[in-house]
Design brief:
This protein is an alpha+beta fold. Helix content is 18%, strand content 40%.
Length: 308
């Protein structure tokens, strides 16, 4: 029973896969959307490291940005690639979806759907749990994202617990994610026990060619062993004018005798009519648990053409 729960959790939490060479495909790092001017001495800006840490830990902007989607009509373009053990693409999914609200009810209109390769089982379900979970989180095929709304059929119990863990990991990085075997305390990277493992780096630049920003990077010290930490890097982009968080990149990696994962994810926000909106989301990594084949996939979501 414990093994099944662990396997299920691994599927839910680490449902993102590819090899490192896919990183450049979707430019997953927020750093690449920023033109860095220079390193910054935060004291001259009347700031200190704790100011950035406090802002990261207190932030609810990412969660609210996803909630804001419900107030708009918009187009979502979703691309998923799956890979075989030789890291060759063996499946592709493309969805172009118009999301709108009619009489207060959410409506999806598929403008384009293309599936090629090994995507589905004979029973019509996805070949990879990775893809199923990603569909559950972001493609809205089951009327679900991480905002308030009707419960999913069959939801509740341990699945809701896994969903809560994912919410913490994605929207509140740096907090402790309870109930994770071997690694719960290691996700709390700003704790007294974990701070010594990291370097803090500060820079300033331009985000999306016009917005002045700070870039705050938390990076594992080169001297530390690989499994001393779970979060290898977390980069957060702050609007210099109001300290609002506009982008986040996180690199997670861990391996032991039960499971291993290597995950990179990135979320970038844009502002429309004063509301922050998720405009670009990428996930990639791999996971491997006993008695299941390694799953590899990469994902890209773009939201655009917002209308109130």
């Amino acid at each position: 029973m414990k093994k099944n729960i662990l396997l299920a959790f691994c599927f839910w939490l680490f449902a993102f896969s590819s090899q490192a060479q896919q990183i450049r495909r979707f430019n997953p790092d927020s750093i690449r959307t920023i033109v860095i001017d220079s390193a910054v001495n935060i004291r001259s800006h009347h700031l200190n490291a704790q100011d950035f840490i406090d802002a990261v830990l207190a932030d609810t902007g990412f969660y609210q940005a996803f909630r804001n989607l419900k107030k708009y009509d918009f187009i979502a373009e979703n691309r998923i690639y799956t890979y075989n053990k030789k890291n060759k693409v063996d499946g592709r999914i493309y969805r172009k979806i118009r999301h709108s609200a009619i009489n207060g009810k959410h409506k999806m209109e598929f403008l384009m759907k293309q599936d090629t390769g090994k995507i589905y089982k004979s029973n019509g379900k996805y070949q990879l749990y990775t893809v199923e979970m990603f569909d559950f989180i972001f493609m809205n095929a089951y009327n679900s994202d991480f905002v308030e709304g009707p419960a999913l059929p069959g939801s509740g119990g341990k699945n809701e617990s896994y969903k809560d863990k994912l919410k913490t990991l994605i929207f509140s990085p740096g907090h402790k994610v309870g109930g994770l075997p071997f690694i719960s305390s290691k996700t709390e990277l700003f704790s007294k026990d974990m701070r010594g493992y990291y370097l803090y780096q500060f820079a300033r630049g331009k985000y999306l060619d016009s917005i002045p920003v700070y870039r705050f990077r938390v990076v594992r010290k080169p001297s530390e062993a690989d499994n001393d930490v779970v979060v290898k890097e977390m980069t957060t982009i702050f609007d210099m004018r109001n300290f609002q968080i506009l982008g986040r990149y996180i690199d997670l990696k861990y391996s032991n005798w039960i499971f291993s994962f290597d995950v990179q994810m990135n979320i970038e926000l844009g502002k429309y009519n004063g509301d922050l909106m998720p405009v670009k989301i990428t996930y990639q990594g791999n996971w491997d648990v006993p008695f299941h084949k390694t799953e590899r996939a990469s994902f890209l979501i773009v939201h655009k053409d917002f209308k109130k």
